[in-house]
Amino acid sequence: MKTMLIVLITLTILGVAAIIIILNLNGSEASGERSIDEIREASLETEEMTTDLENGGFVRISFRVVADSKDGLEELEKRDFQMKNVIIKQLAQMNEDQFKSDLSTLEETIKLKLNEFMEEGTITDVYTISKVLQ
Asked: Pairing mode, if any, of strands 58-67 and 49-52?
């Protein structure tokens, strides 16, 4: 009886320790916290693009698009023509006032549209790294 009780207590302690270790290891990955090096390794900087806005103005802009993994980055590099198409179409629907005030909305829309194409990974962030409105 004493032996069985000792074995059950030992198994319980080992089980609790295993759960704590697993939650701590997966917790940092599940929370989405990545180092800046990991983000840079999984991101693609677009070339500077010049296109027109809805009301006739011109904009010169470039982005850094961040994928969730290296596989996602490789797929994004292959889909560069689709990425440029999405950016041009979104900018063509904006006027100068929208462009000045809704840059965050533009980034989110580009992210959502690109994720519609992605099969291997997903786009986690889109950052505007340069812009000039003419």
From this structure: antiparallel
Indicate if the pLDDT at residue 18 is higher than 90: no
Distance CA 39, CA 68 (A): 8
**Arch. (CATH architecture) of 39-133:** 2-Layer Sandwich (3.30)
Instruction: Say yes or no to pLDDT of 66 above 90.
Output: yes
Nearest CA to 51 among 90, 105, 9, 25?
90
User: Do β-strands 123-133 and 43-45 pair in parallel, antiparallel, or remain unpaired?
Assistant: unpaired
Mean pLDDT of the chain: 87
For residue 120, give both structure tokens.
């291997």
77-115 per-position pLDDT tens digit: 999 999 999 999 999 998 888 888 888 899 999 999 999
**Six token digits for residue 21:** 């270790």
Rg from Cα positions in the chain:
23
Alpha helices by DSSP H, listed for the chain, are 2-30, 36-41, 70-78, 80-92, 96-101, 103-117
Q: Quick one: which of 62, 68, 78 has its CA closest to 38? A: 68
Contact 19, 28 (CB under 8 A): no
